């Protein structure tokens, strides 16, 4: 058979000539948001807080003569000592920030009368977005993420002619 | 870290998206996967340690994993797979390929087995070396190379049959 045989280079050139489906412009925005979402080192802070809490607790135990606090009562002369219960040490959740990105905006724009009889015309805009809140669960060493849709309806007064 | 990721994203935006699309076969899921991958990379706080320490390969690996996750979560949704291509090609003179052959080639790439299609996307469209592809795929260099060659043979047969 005399089928035309293309070299690898020719085939790759042909493939490069095919027009690829392109990502939407929204992707740039989303990646930018993703990269700016957690610039603060929350995880490091949580680990440091846990470590600090443990050190504090250890210090209290050592200060009490090595007994691991059999009772909740402070030792004599330590009535004013604070409880060793910083939020991170007790395994609490540390809020690490909220990110919101547009899911669709605007969904609708329409002119309407705010008050059907006497009110001025206004332009209503519906904005749909998604809000993500993240927490750091220091006890189980994991991230928790809550995503919820947010719809905002805004009215802007139209200038009547 | 953030600057490095931004640079890689700017340079490989199309390649990363095409890789995610070749796995998820859905534009929306592909964009989700790219975003998720960069969010994970930032959370991790470093570009990780790969055998060659190549950050580009590491980012591609992350996008690939995120896309596989997204595809797995949405496996039950029987949506029509979306093509990697938008139906046009850049060869106005028709020197290398005419419209019909281009269509056959597009269909052939879309119809490749997943692993071969990913290899083609990373090699041809993302411009990665075989070393980088092997790192991004987590597979031996020889496997990746022979897989790519098998994909080319298959595509060559498609073009040959049509001309």
Describe the model.
The complex is a heterodimer of chains A (161) and B (163). With 161 residues, chain A is α+β, with helices and mostly antiparallel strands. Helix content of chain A is 27%, strand content 35%. Chain A contains 3 helices and 4 strands; from the N terminus they run H-E-H-H-E-E-E. Chain A has helices spanning 8-17, 25-36, 42-63, and strands spanning 18-20, 93-113, 121-137, 142-157. A 3-stranded antiparallel sheet of chain A has the order 2-3-4. In chain A, strand 2 (93-113) and strand 3 (121-137) form a beta hairpin. Chain A is flat, with a radius of gyration of 30 Å. The termini of chain A are far apart. By secondary structure, chain B is mainly α. Chain B has helices spanning 2-24, 27-44, 55-73, 99-110, 114-125, 130-137, 141-162; one strand at 85-89. In chain B, helix 2 (27-44) packs across helix 3 (55-73) and helix 3 crosses helix 6 (130-137). Chain B is globular and about 50 Å long. The A-B interface holds A 3-6, 8, 10-24, 26-28, 30-39, 41, 43, 143 and B 2, 5-6, 9, 13-14, 17-18, 21, 27, 30-31, 34-36, 38-39, 42-43, 45, 82-91, 96-97, 101-102, 105-106, 109, 120, 123-125, 152, 155-156, 159-161, 163. Strand 1 of chain A pairs antiparallel with strand 1 of chain B.
